[in-house]
Design a protein that fits this description.
Shape: elongated
Oligomer: single chain
Helix content: 25-40%
Bound molecules: adenosine-5'-diphosphate, magnesium ion
Strand content: 15-25%
Largest sheet: 9 strands, mixed
């Protein structure tokens, strides 16, 4: 099985301070909303954008005496995600209460998995360009509940609470501090999103907050990170700050850059970075302190007495593993190795699984590179321009495949094929029938081409003299013949005939 391509690690981002160089060290805690119709411990709907407080079961509202019941589907989704990042799945995990007060958390605690997460160590390969990738280790994935939403900007004197999101299942995916720059952090989130979208375990919608990240940033002198890697001793790294709740790739990058420079200024000034939670303000482009870093004991974590430890069987996991789709790295490697695509093109085509499926339908039984060119340059180019996607494309994979067949058979030239694509885009229809009906077929009839060549030569004696002295000018005749035949003459045949006639 092709796993992923061989790669070398990118250079870490270096920021030059006033006194010395600094490197960045970043670890992410990504919160991914589990794709599921029902919540983690209740049957209430997870539908987005509903009337406030209309998707709230008694247990979500923490009515006295209500008991949580685990949603097996959400557990399966977490296992699937774990398998997708090649992680160890824990046969036994357990839920803990993380106690804190918040108006949108009626229970007074969040049910999470601090001590015994369902998913253990895994990895994500983060592509940073052809042949360059970073391996980011995953520490764990645990299941937990989301909180509700407090709304402070609807009324001048009152705040409102919407509990629709309360109790929705989240996967918290915790990375090791293996990310070495802002671009890598964004690429890491993109890669996780891509994997989960392939798996169908999280829709990755960042605008709706279905995928958001807490970003931990520290800086250290060159060489310190290598010592951490050798020893796994965190004391080689700088003190980190955590930037909470980021749901935009652009802001993640800007926040990391700002935060690293803020820490460097403190350190070069002889100060110390205090470990704390910070918030990014996109309007100012700054991070500001939210609270000093809390410790686990502040939350008085303890095993939730309402929930038994979660025990799952290996056979159940094996069943989920057997149903996993082909994942992005494997698909990309297959496109490169089996279809001869460049790594770049394979990356573009596998970005979204729907795109990859469309491409494969076009490439099936045809030349892979040619199919890739047409899908990326003509189809994606046009879809982007018109704000469409492959699902809403006016040209189907079968139609595009038909165009490629006509080129391969020599029925139409590449130039005519673009006209044909345009007709398919605006009017639809069957490519072969259109070419037949509108006389778009390439002329390969040598007699007809020869006649056209002879006519051009007869009409331009001056040019003929020049071309005889300078063979490079033969191209002019080829152009004239193609023009005279409406682009339908087979260019190779025209070239050959012109060369022969000019001697
Ligand atoms: P906590 O549970 O207190 O937030 P964790 O050890 O779980 O602490 O770490 C949270 C995140 O911070 C992880 O993603 C981890 O990789 C990252 N992290 C830990 N140390 C550093 C550091 N020195 N610099 C950057 N990120 C770090
Ligand atoms: Mg944390």
């Amino acid at each position: 099985m092709l796993d992923h391509l061989s790669y070398t690690a990118p250079e870490p981002k270096v920021i030059s301070g006033a006194k010395q160089d600094w490197e960045l060290v970043i670890g992410l805690e990504v919160h991914a909303q589990v794709s599921s119709n029902a919540k983690l411990f209740s049957g209430a709907s997870t539908g987005f954008g509903a009337e406030p407080n209309s998707h709230v079961a008694f247990v979500d509202a923490a009515m006295p005496g209500m008991l949580p019941v685990i949603n097996e589907f959400c557990v399966a989704q977490a296992v699937k995600t774990g398998l997708g990042i090649k992680a160890a799945i824990n046969l036994r995990s357990a839920f803990d209460r993380k106690n804190y007060f918040y108006p949108d958390l009626p229970q007074g605690y969040q049910i999470s998995q601090l001590y015994h997460p369902i998913v253990g160590e895994g990895e994500v390969i983060v592509d940073m360009g052809p042949g360059v990738a970073r391996r980011v280790r995953i520490e764990r994935i645990h299941l937990e509940q989301d909180a509700g939403k407090s709304i402070h900007d609807m009324d001048p004197t009152m705040s409102f609470v919407d509990l629709n999101r309360t109790g929705v299942a989240l996967m918290e995916i915790v990375s090791r501090p293996d990310i070495r720059g802002p671009e890598e952090a964004a690429a890491y989130v993109s890669k996780l999103r891509q994997i989960m979208r392939y798996l169908g375990t999280c829709d990755g919608n960042m605008q709706n907050g279905n995928l958001r990240a807490d970003v931990n940033v520290s800086v250290c002198p060159p060489g310190a990170y290598e010592r951490y890697q050798e020893t796994q001793d965190f004391s080689h790294l700088g003190t980190r700050c955590e930037i909470k709740n980021m749901n935009s790739l652009r802001f993640i990058q800007a926040a990391i850059d700002y935060e690293a420079r803020r820490q460097i200024a403190i350190l070069e000034d002889g100060g110390k970075v205090t470990q704390e939670t910070r918030l990014y303000d996109p309007d100012k482009g700054e991070t500001r302190s939210m609270r000093s870093k809390e410790e686990a004991h502040d939350y008085r974590y303890f095993p939730d007495p309402d929930l038994l430890p979660l025990e799952i069987e290996q056979a159940w996991i094996d069943g989920i593993a057997a149903g996993l789709p082909e994942l992005p790295d494997a698909k990309k490697a297959r496109f490169v190795e089996a279809l001869g695509l460049s790594e770049y093109d394979a990356g573009v085509l596998t970005a979204e699984v729907e795109n990859a499926d469309y491409f494969e339908a076009v490439a099936q039984g045809r030349d892979g590179k040619m199919a890739a060119n047409w899908v990326i340059n003509e189809l994606f180019g046009r879809l982007n321009k018109e704000g469409l996607s492959v699902e809403t494309s006016p040209v189907s994979a079968a139609q595009l495949g038909g165009v490629i067949d006509l080129i391969a058979k020599g029925d139409i030239s590449g130039k005519i094929a673009k006209d044909l694509f345009e007709i398919l885009w605006t009017e639809g229809g069957d490519p072969a029938q259109i070419v037949e009906a509108r006389g778009m077929k390439q002329v390969t009839d040598l007699g007809a081409i020869e006649k056209a060549v002879d006519e051009i030569i007869a009409a331009n004696p001056g040019q003929v003299e020049k071309a005889k002295a300078n063979p490079k000018l033969a191209g002019w005749f080829v152009g004239q013949v193609l023009k005279a035949t409406g682009g339908k003459a087979n260019p190779a045949a025209v070239n050959e005939l012109v060369a022969k006639k000019l001697g």
